[in-house]
Amino acid sequence: MNHRPLGGAGLGFRRELIAELRNGVPEGIDFFELAPENWAGMGGRSARDLRHFTERHPFVCHGLSLSLGGPAPLDSALLRRIRAFMAEHGIGLYTEHLSWCADDSHLYELLPIPLSAEAVRWTAGRIGQAQDILGCRIGIENASYYVAPPGAEMSEAEFISAVVDEADCLLHLDVNNIYVNSRNFGFDPLAFLQALPLERTCYIHVAGHYVEADGLLVDTHGAAVIDPVWSLLAETYRRIGSDIPTCLERDFNIPDLAQLSAEVGRIARLQAQMHTAERQVA
Questions:
Q1: Which architecture does CATH list for 9-281?
Q2: CA 193 to CA 179: how far, in whole Å?
Q3: Dist. CA 205–CA 216, nearest whole Å
Q4: Where are the domains of the chain?
Q5: CA–CA separation, 161 vs 140, rounded Å?
Q6: Rounded to whole angstroms, how far apart are CA atoms 203 and 7?
C-alpha cells in the first residue's frame, strides 16, 4: 500500500470512536494517529475496522513502549512488527518518546533520561538501530516528566538537540508537554521552544492536562486543550510554519466526536490563519 500524503490536523484513533467515524469522518480531520503496539497483529473485527480507515485516510504510528533511552536491549522484534504493520497499512511516519519505560519488564511510565553526553551517545545509537530496522527516519517526542532529569550536564533542550543531531533523526514536538514541564519546573516555554532544533520538526502534538490540588500539572490527555497551550501552538507555527501535521491527543474522558472535531477544527483554523499570514509576508 502506498503512503498517503500527511498534513493538516489529525485525531488519535480510538476504538471508542469507530462507530461514529464509520458514519462519516468529519470534515477537517485530515489524518489519524494510532499506537502500533495496540493494533499490529490484531485479527478479526479490529483488523477489518482498521483496514476500513487506513484504506481511506492517512495514518501516523506513535509508539508507546520502545524505551529509546532505557538500559534493556532494544526490542528489535517489536520494530520488525511495526515495519511490517506500516507497510501493510501504507503508513510513512513513526514517532516515539524521548524517554525510557522498560528494563526487565515494562514500567508503564515514561521516565526522563539523564541529561549527559553518555546518555546522548547511548540514546542516539538506539535511535539509529531503530531507524535501520524500520528503514526510515523517526521522530522523537519531547516528553513530560515529574522529577527533574538526572545527571544534568546540559539543559533538556540541549540534550534533545544533541540526540537529534547525532542520531540524524526528526523531532516530534509536543506543545502541551512543553507547557506542562514549564509550569512544573518554572522555565520559559518560549525560550525552551526556541532552543530546540525546530528545523527538524516532522510532527506536532497538542493535548489537555489535569491540574492537581497542589498545582502540579499532569499530562493526562484527558481534558480539553487550554488557551495557553493554543497560544503556544500558534507561536510554534509562527516560528516553523503551519505545514507541520498536528494531532489532537485525547486518551481519557473521551467526549463525543462532535466535541473532538471542534478541537481538531481549531488546529485547522490556526494552520489556515498562519498560512494566510505567511503568504502575505511572502
A1: Alpha-Beta Barrel (3.20)
A2: 10
A3: 21
A4: 9-281
A5: 11
A6: 9
Cell of 33: 494517529
Least confidently predicted of 106-110, 168-172, 186-190: 106-110
Do residues 132 and 150 lie in contact, with contact meaning Cβ atoms separated by under 8 Å? no
In the chain, the N- to C-terminal Cα span, in Å, equals 37
Q: Supply the pTM of this predicted model.
A: 0.94
Q: In 3-state terms, what secondary structure has residue 144?
A: coil
At 143-163, the pLDDT tens digits run 998 888 777 899 999 999 999
Beta pairing partners, 174: 205
Please give the C-alpha separations between residue 50 and each of 4, 64, 65, 177, in angstroms, as whole numbers.
15, 19, 21, 28
- How far is residue 39's CA from residue 82's CA, in Å, rounded to a whole number? 10
- CB–CB of 248/10 below 8 Å? yes
pLDDT > 50? residue 108: no
Residues 6+ away with beta carbon under 8 Å from 126? 68, 69, 74
Strand partners, 141: 97, 172
Return the number of other C-beta atoms located less than 10 Å from residue 203's C-beta.
23
Is residue 102's pLDDT more than 50? no
Q: How far apart are CA 87 and CA 41, in angstroms?
A: 13
- Residue 198's nearest CA partner among 172, 167, 179 is 172
Angle at 256 between CA 254 and CA 257, to 5 degrees: 110
Q: Looking at the predicted structure, is the pLDDT value of residue 68 above 90? A: yes
Q: Say which residues have a Cβ less than 8 Å from residue 105's Cβ, sequence separation at least 6.
A: none
